[in-house]
Design a protein that fits this description.
3 helices
Length: about 90
C-alpha cells in the first residue's frame, strides 16, 4: 500500500476524504469528524489541524480498515467501524 492522501472535509457528510493506492486500485474513504471529536475528548467541531493529526496518527489503521472493507470484510473493530468507503 502507498501513502494516504487527505482531500479535505466533505461538507455533506462531515467526513474527511482520504485515498490511497493498493496495487492497481485506488481506495477512497471517509473518516468521520466524530472520530476526531472522540479522540480529542472535547465537544464541537475540531480544528482541521487536529483532524489531520488524528488521521496521521492513525494512518495505518485507517488504511488497513478501508482495505478490509474494500475486500468485503466487515469484521472491523470500533471505533474504525465508523469509516466508510466512497465509491466512484
Amino acid at each position: 500500500m502507498s501513502g494516504m492522501n487527505v482531500h479535505g472535509i466533505d461538507p455533506e457528510t462531515r467526513g474527511y476524504r482520504v485515498s490511497f493506492e493498493d496495487g492497481d486500485r485506488v481506495i477512497r474513504g471517509l473518516v468521520p469528524e466524530t472520530l476526531v471529536v472522540d479522540w480529542l475528548r472535547r465537544p464541537g467541531t475540531p480544528p482541521h489541524s487536529d483532524a489531520y493529526q488524528f488521521i496521521a496518527a492513525h494512518r495505518e489503521k485507517i488504511m488497513k480498515t478501508l482495505k478490509k472493507m474494500s475486500d468485503g470484510d466487515r469484521s472491523v473493530g470500533a471505533p474504525f467501524d465508523r469509516l466508510s468507503l466512497v465509491e466512484e
